[in-house]
Amino acid sequence: MVKNNLDGRRLFVLDTNVLMHDPTALFRFEEHDILIPMVVLEELDAGKKGVSEVARNVRQVTRYLDDLLSAAEEGEDPMVEGIHIGLIPQIQDRNKHGKIYFQTKEHIDRLPDSLPSSKADNTILNVALALQARDDDRTVTLVSKDINLRIKANIVGVHAEDYFNDKVLDDVEQLYTGYYELPENFWDTHSRDIDSWQEEGKTFYQIKGPLVSEWSLNQCLFQPQDNFEAIVRSVEDKDDQPMATIELLADYRNDSHNIWGITARNREQSYALNLLMDPDVDFVTLQGPAGTGKTLLALAAALEQTIELKRYKEIIVTRVTVSVGEDIGFLPGTEEEKMTPWMGALMDNLEVLSPSDNDEWGTAVTHDLLRKWIKVRSLNFMRGRTFLNKFIIIDEAQNLTSKQMKTLITRAGPGTKVVCMGNVAQIDTPYLSETTSGITFVVDRFKNWPHSGHMTLKRGERSRLADYASELL
C-alpha cells in the first residue's frame, strides 16, 4: 500500500535515465532527500564513454557526485549520514536542499517471483520497496523516465513519478501560438487614446486598453472582418495603464511582396515571412504539422536576404539525425555527404525555389549556384563554434532537448539569425514529449524578448492528399 503523506518530507529514488537526461536533477528536489541505488552507479559507469550528449551528461553527474563526496563535513560518515546537497559550490542555500544517500548494502528480495531481481530496473524497484518498508514516517518515491518501470512500481505498491523539472507546460495546448485574434468590439474599447504615425514607410499605432496587457512582443494581431493585421513592437505601463506600440504587417500573400518567387498561401505563412524578413528579429521559431511550409518559407527568406539583400554571408542548415525507422548504418563521405540523406526536405524545397523552364542544364547550374550559398552541417560538431553573419536553419528541432537547444543557439555571433522549425506531434527522441521538447522550451522562454518571434502554422499547403491524410490519419 502506498503511503499518503505526499505533502511532507520525501525520499526520492532516482533511476539512471533521469540523471542521463538531466545531470542537474540532483539539485531539483528542494528540501527532500535523494537516494542513488548501486545499480544506477553501475549503469552510469557503463554510459560515460563517448562524445554523445548522454555520455557528457553522465560525466557531469559523476563530477557532481565527486564534489558532494569532497564537500562532506569532517567527522561525518557520508555513506551512513548522507551528504547535504547544499554544501557544494553550485548551491547557494543549504537549507533549501536535503541530503543525498547512496545504497551501501543489499536489501532482501521483496519482488514478486515474476520480476527477476537480476534486471537493473527490477533491482532499483527492489531498493524502493525495501526503503518503503523501512521508512514509516515519509513517502518513498521512485523517479523514472521509463513508463514501464513506473507501471511496475505502481503494481507492487511503490509510488512512482516521471521527472517533471524539464516540463515547460502542463499541456501543449497552452503553448504560445504567436498570434492573437482581436474581438469584434476591439476598436470600440481601445480607440479613445489611439495615436498613429508613419516612419520610414511603416505605419505605427499606439494603443491603450485592457487587452494590451495580454499581448507579447512581436505577437501578430488580426481582426478578420476589418482585414487588420499588425505586430506588437512594445508593451509598457504609462500612467498605470498598459500601452502598446503596434506596426502594420506587410501582406506576403500579395504577388508584389513575393520572396524568392513565392508568396504566402494563408495568414500564418504571411506572419511567418514578416518575422523571417525582419532584420531586427534575430531568433524565429516555426511550429506546425508537416506540409505547412516551414522549411520552404525559411529557405526562401534565407536566399532572399543572403543573395539579394546581402544581409548574411551564408546559409547554414542542420537537423537532428534521428531515424524514423531502423538505422541504415554507416554513411561514407565528408560531413556534408553524411548529412545528405537527412536533408531530403532541403533538396525538395530547392526544387520549388529554383526556376526550371524545362531546361535541364539551366536547372543544374541554378542548383549548383544555390548550393554554394547553402552549407549543410552536423549538430555533432557545433560545440565551440561561432557563426558570424550567417542565416542558420535548425530543422526537426522538436527532437532536441532544452540543453541541446541552448548549445546551438549560443553559437550565434554578431549579425546572425537563427530559425528553429519543428512539429511537436512528431517526436522521435526517447524520453522527450510535447511538453519537454527543446522547441517548446525556447518558444516559451523567448516569447517576450524584443528580438525574437514565433508562429504556429496550422493549415497544410502541400497537397490535398497530404492535408486529408493529416486530418484523417
Brief characterization of the structure:
One of its GO terms (molecular function) is ATP binding. By secondary structure, this protein is an alpha/beta fold. Helices cover 31% and strands 19% of the residues.
Describe the structure.
With 473 residues, the protein is of the alpha/beta class. The chain has three domains: 11-161, Rossmann fold; 172-248, no CATH class; 260-472, 3-Layer(aba) Sandwich (Rossmann fold). The chain is 31% helix and 19% strand. It has 15 helices and 18 strands. Strand 11 and strand 12 form a beta hairpin. The longest helix has 19 residues, at 53-71. The chain is globular, with a radius of gyration of 27 Å. Mean pLDDT is 83; it is low at 1-7 and 323-328. Residues 10-151 form the PIN domain. One of its GO terms (molecular function) is ATP binding. It holds the Pfam family PhoH.
What tags apply to this protein structure?
473 residues; alpha/beta; Rossmann fold; 6-stranded mixed sheet; PhoH; ATP-binding; PhoH family protein
Stated plainly, the CATH topology of the largest domain is called Rossmann fold
Output the structural class. Answer: alpha/beta
Counted beta strands: 18
Mean pLDDT equals 83
Number of domains: 3
Shape descriptor reads globular
N-end to C-end Cα span: 41 Å
Work out the helicity level: 25-40%
Report the portion of residues in β strands: 15-25%
Count of alpha/pi helices: 15
Give the biggest beta sheet. Answer: 6 strands, mixed
In terms of per-residue confidence, which ranges show pLDDT below 50 for 5 or more consecutive residues?
A: 1-7, 323-328
Q: What's the name of the CATH homologous superfamily of the largest domain?
A: P-loop containing nucleotide triphosphate hydrolases
Q: Output the CATH class name of the largest domain.
A: Alpha Beta
Main sheet: strand order = 3-4-2-1-5-6
**Radius of gyration (Å):** 27 Å
Known CATH architecture of the largest domain: 3-Layer(aba) Sandwich
